[in-house]
Amino acid sequence: MNDILKRNNVQLMGEGEQYMIFAHGYGCDQHVWSDMVPAFVDDYKLVLFDYVGSGESDLSAYDAKRYSSLNGYAQDLIEICDALQIRNAILVGHSVSSMIGVLAANQRPEFFSKLIFLGPSPCYLNKGDYHGGFEQADLDGLFEMMDNNYLGWAQALAPQIMANGDRPELGETLTTSFCATDPVIAQQFARVTFLSDNREDLAKLKLPSLTLQCSSDIIAPLEVGKYIHNVLPDNRLVVLKATGHCSHMSAPAETIAAIRNFI
């Protein structure tokens, strides 16, 4: 158990009976939840962690084969829940962690009671009638720029992902997080994230879920939020006034209120 908790730098806080797990998105770590934690720490037992390759996780545990698909990251989440003997937790997943949560919940539904998606996407590519927001050429260009100059890519893209240009400190925070990630791991995780198609996995989800969709998001357009809402029989879609891809950082009060209203 201790090996797993150390591997993923698992942090526990709060005195509540029900677990609430916060799962960060690509290029981030558990510190992105700092504005969310105070709102829930009195009522829930909070679990924060870093995926292997992120934050203060054990980089020596990174296995390129294991993490060549989102299933490897879902296995991390499952092993954390197993180690802590978690049942019926609320999972809050940002971006790619939304689908990682879906994969984990489909395998081990007893671990979770509700899933909360922040800026989710089951498929980033436009495919047929499905609008994911990206063409293959877009992603090829993104990957090429990452491979040629990862730090330059991070410095250029992170502020666009964050949006909220009137508050440049938000973009700077995300840029710092991106730049702190191991470039080789970040490049593989980007390909795994953006090339995944989890629409079939999403359709198998039986648990209640909440989709929090920002009103303007270059990573997860509104059409994707509507798609998720239409596919899942027990999903609530809330379109936030917040813009960008990281409402938990740019608009924590609005995000917290929407989560509280759901749970």
TrEMBL record:
<dbReference type="InterPro" id="IPR029058">
    <property type="entry name" value="AB_hydrolase_fold"/>
</dbReference>
<dbReference type="Pfam" id="PF12697">
    <property type="entry name" value="Abhydrolase_6"/>
</dbReference>
<dbReference type="InterPro" id="IPR000073">
    <property type="entry name" value="AB_hydrolase_1"/>
</dbReference>
<comment type="similarity">
    <text>Belongs to the AB hydrolase superfamily.</text>
</comment>
<protein>
    <submittedName>
        <fullName>Sigma-B regulation protein RsbQ</fullName>
    </submittedName>
</protein>
<feature type="domain" description="AB hydrolase-1">
    <location>
        <begin position="21"/>
        <end position="257"/>
    </location>
</feature>
